[in-house]
Specification:
alpha+beta; Rieske Iron-sulfur Protein; 2 domains; four-stranded antiparallel beta sheet; 5 helices; 13 strands; 26% strand; elongated
């Protein structure tokens, strides 16, 4: 073999052996530290990029319910309002539709129902006394009028575990079929495991049209915490 070829072979063999040599313990520790540091930096960069992306996909109503674009005014059928007006003190079930928009999600149609009550003059005067949870307990108060023009619109969601309660005319009270919670016509809790009374919703009249804003409160606790607007 030519001397130059032999030298090249020796160099290649030496380099190959160098790759196989694990090195001293200090060199091994240094390499391990650099590898761990690289992984850690990569993880931090990935987290920084991921958090804004994931946050952008979460509905705004869950991140900041009070700022959500989902709190829209929905029209209530005029025929139901007419029925409600003609029956003071008697709850009326009102179905309504609205288009719900939240953050980066496309608008979607939603259907809900409320229980409306046109309070009698006596009920209107005693409402505040019968519903101290709406006025005298800061963590249970609402940020809008509970009664507007003697009308009150109750969310149809039971504050116990989220079932849909019904008005039972024979007993003159709202009754939840799931766990037996009962509420008076003003929404005050009368019996059962519900931790609070019924939740009134924002209501208004604009240009001759009655409107309501659908708000979903957290069930199973006394405090009123907004979960979402749909």
């Amino acid at each position: 073999m030519a001397p130059s070829a032999q030298r090249k072979g020796n160099v290649a063999e030496h380099e190959a052996q160098a790759y196989k040599d694990p090195g001293t313990p200090e060199e091994q520790s240094r390499r391990q530290f650099l590898a761990n540091a690289t992984l850690a930096v990569g993880g931090v960069i990935g987290l920084v990029l991921t958090v804004p992306l994931v946050s952008s996909l979460i509905p705004e109503s869950l991140l900041s319910p009070e700022k959500s674009a989902g709190g829209v005014w929905a029209d209530l059928p005029k025929s139901d309002i007419a029925t409600l007006t003609s029956k003071p003190g008697e709850p009326v079930k009102i179905n309504f539709n609205f288009k719900y928009a939240d953050g980066y999600l496309p608008p979607a149609d939603d259907t809900q129902f409320v229980w409306g009550v046109k309070l009698t003059p006596e009920q209107d005067q005693t409402f505040r006394a019968k519903r101290p949870d709406l006025f005298n307990v800061p963590s249970m108060e609402i940020k809008y009028p509970a009664v507007t023009m003697s009308f009150v619109m109750f969310s149809s969601i039971c504050p116990h575990l989220g079932c849909r309660y019904q008005w039972v005319g024979e007993q003159k009270r709202f009754i939840c079929p799931c766990h037996g919670s009962q509420f008076g016509v003003e929404g005050a809790k009368l019996a059962g495991p519900a931790p609070r009374g019924l939740d009134p919703l924002p209501f208004r009249e604009k240009d001759g049209q009655a409107q309501v804003t659908w708000i979903q409160y957290k069930s199973g606790q006394a405090d009123r915490l907004i979960v979402a607007y749909s």
